[in-house]
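Hello,

I think I submitted the protoporphyrin IX containing FE job twice by accident. Can you confirm which output corresponds to this input? Input:
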Amino acid sequence: MQIAQHRRWDPLVQLTHWGVAAGVLANGVFTDEGSGPHQWVGYAIAALLALRWIWGLVGPTEARFSAFPPSLTRALTHVREIARGERTTHRSHNPLGALMVYALWMTLAVVIGSGVAMSALPAGLPFKSEAASASSRSRPVATEDDEARESYEGEREHERREANQGEGSGAGEGDELLEEIHEVAANLLFGLAGLHLLGVAFETSRSGRGVVKAMLPGGRRRRRPA
Ligand code: HEM
Ligand code: HEM
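Support: Only one job matched these inputs. Its output is below.
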């Protein structure tokens, strides 16, 4: 599609983008693995993603899934255009960017799905150990009782260590698998986010367009008289 790129992404795409990016950074760097804040940030990311995906069906044209279908053929064509030095512009994500967007979304879904399964699903389901479910049920609800929460986190950590030692107990095997999936997918997500940033930097220097600016809030620029 050789259409001039729209100036800015709409506010909902911007809000969900920066919200998800901040949440991923928070859970990757700042929150304690598996802690209450870690889970809440994870749920917030899930809510933002859900909102974005609804927007992908009903939002403005350039935000819709139909504007950036995942297509290897288009991505390869785009690579050839880049190699020839052609400066094509796209109304939505360019075909390479689109592949990255779907990869990020799918990986996020696996991270969130495995995280939720570890924390919140009832016992008796495949992948869910009785011990971990009991610990989910006994989680103190309010943050008022810090002591109870700390002791809960301590017990949870203890259970985790025991489960990790594994031998003979049998408990926690499903959770170990979920933990493994969660960890691998989270690391894949960080790797993809790094590539995403390289892609954004490359596209910015190649096209000379304000790619990042289009993801930042702000109205149309007005020319002031000199
Ligand atoms: C995009 C969002 C998320 C990111 C980037 C993320 C990242 C991580 C990372 C890097 C770890 C440490 C893995 C390890 O080294 O063992 C971890 C652990 C954990 N996460 Fe997440 N997480 C996310 C969302 C969630 C959600 C939504 C939940 C649950 C509602 C969750 C629950 C947990 C739990 C329970 C652990 C501890 C696993 C264990 O017992 O060792 N995470 N997460
Ligand atoms: C963990 C961090 C990040 C994640 C998971 C992430 C994820 C995403 C996703 C899913 C999209 C598609 C947006 C949509 O259609 O809703 C996107 C687009 C975009 N992101 Fe990020 N992002 C991250 C960090 C960043 C950072 C730090 C920057 C800026 C330096 C950035 C700049 C952009 C831009 C400019 C686009 C639009 C690309 C285009 O024009 O096609 N992202 N990102």
